[in-house]
Amino acid sequence: ESQKSGLSAAVDLKMGLPHVTIPKKLPLIVVADGVLLPGSTIRIPVTTVKNINLVRSRLTSGSKLASTIIGIVTKEPGKESKVNALHEIGTAGVVIQVTGTNWPRPSYSLLVTGLCRFRLQSIIQEHPYPVAIVTQLDDIKDITDENDEQPTELVSEFKEAAQKLINLLDISVPAVAKLKDLVERVPSRQLADVVAALVRATLPERLQVLDAIDVATRLRVTLPLLLRHIQRLKDVREAGSEEGNKENRIVHISRGGRNLLPDPDSLDDSENEVAELEEKIKATNMPEEVHKAAVKELGRLKRMAQHMPDYSMTRNYLDLIVELPWSITVKETCNIRKAREDLDADHYGLQKVKRRVLEYLAVRQLRGDLKGPILCFVGPPGVGKTSIAKSIATTLGRPYCRMSLGGVSDQHDIRGHRRTYIGAMPGRVIQALRNVKVKNPVMLLDEIDKLGTGIHGDPGAALLEVLDPEQNSTFTDTYLNLPFDLSQVLFVATANSLSTIATPLLDRMEVIHVPGYTQEEKVMIGQLHLLPKQLQEHGLSSDILDMSKESIATISKECYICV
């Protein structure tokens, strides 16, 4: 409906500017796959450097009407790679809305209403944006003059065909009623442009309409397009219920006229994507509350045009919902004997640490589940804190994922951003679960002591809900805005020091100190682990290179390595 009202507003705008003459010098927006016709309103995506420069210097720096009048020209089809391969005829338009963002990269969108045609005489400026000398072709001073000298029979035939098109549609739909009113009251010199902006047409066909300076020629060029579209609607209606929903295709067609997008046939890809999302929602075993929210968002997506800013945001949101492991778990396997072997194979010494880990796993094996505590390994760098967490995941048969918290000073990194913000993303916890694809992984919170506090809140406070077994069963990410059960996630944390960890957060965890290695332990680690690993990586064997314990001890002392 907004698209038809936009076209109606365009006509009203032109009727309300009886004394406007376009400037002789016009800044140009160059588009590759669309045509702006006088009387239509389109949305133009601005992504190229020159077009962005024009928006910044011309449209966002002044409020005068003259500063908002720009030229829209199309690149010649098949000549996109050539310099200055611009179509000779363009359309002067008034910019009625500018939206966009500078982050993460500049991107704007212009809502432009076509005023009149012009002919390019010469390009007088290339940088920072193109400026051309133009000659106005349509007279917009007397746009309301109904004393048209157009062939009456041709105009009548065209209006009759337009009425046939409207009769094939559901007149109860507000958009169709707007269209009917528009066709009845638009001046005959604008009639062809308005209809050509609505019906399906290829880029060369739209350029033919644009090139038709004479109104009678324009009507003759547009009439076959209109009749072809009428026949297409009739064929769809005869096809039966299988494609009956395409009778209102005018809604999609108007998008092709109002927005500089590829041919509307490409919208079939969008429909396939929506259908694929619908199948995924049905196949995903999600809670009832989540399913209702997903169905509601899918309904909004079906009603959106592909160019709308909310389309990609809603699509990304639905992708997240269907990819989250709402009910996918892996069966836990806990063998204490194998756990001991894995820990001994991966770590030398650390007997107290290994004993506590085995006790923790033994309790899990007896009970089948254990909501707490959260193990936190504290020690200097390089003593094996992270690899212990990997060994726990291997023993339990669970997937392992690591979330580095070093330098995080924004609570939104944990909780996620609101979807209304540009560039919004879910929090790290939800993203990690999305990547690991199960709801009961072993999640390592690495360097939890390196959390900072900034102007965007305290991420340590956000972690309290994540780690609290009484609350995390209904953890609500701000982006997702739906409860997700984290109670089956096994959290393991690492830190170098306890002094920087907040007391409430520290109370959630059981601290296990991982001490540094003695000189004798370093020598044994070098002989049993590091040296064989380096020999294998360099394609050597112990027969070629042999290193004594004394040599390893000397290296460890002189290089001050802390394994």
UniProtKB/TrEMBL annotation:
Transmembrane segments: none
Protein's UniProt keywords contain Cytoplasm: yes
InterPro entries reported in the protein's UniProt record: AAA+_ATPase, ATPase_AAA_core, ClpA/B, Lon_Prtase, Lon_prtase_N, Lon_prtase_N_sf, P-loop_NTPase, PUA-like_sf
UniProt keyword Cell division present: no
Entry keywords, A to Z: ATP-binding, Cytoplasm, Hydrolase, Nucleotide-binding, Protease, Serine protease, Stress response
UniProt-listed Gene3D superfamilies: 1.10.8.60, 1.20.5.5270, 1.20.58.1480, LON domain-like, P-loop containing nucleotide triphosphate hydrolases
Record SMART domains: AAA (SM00382), LON (SM00464)
Biased composition (Basic and acidic residues): 239-250
Annotated stretches, region: Disordered: 239-269
Any one GO MF annotation of this record: ATP binding
Gene Ontology biological-process entries: protein catabolic process; proteolysis
Sequence ranges assigned to domain Lon N-terminal in this UniProt record: 26-230
Protein name (record): Lon N-terminal domain-containing protein
Lineage: Eukaryota, Metazoa, Ecdysozoa, Arthropoda, Crustacea
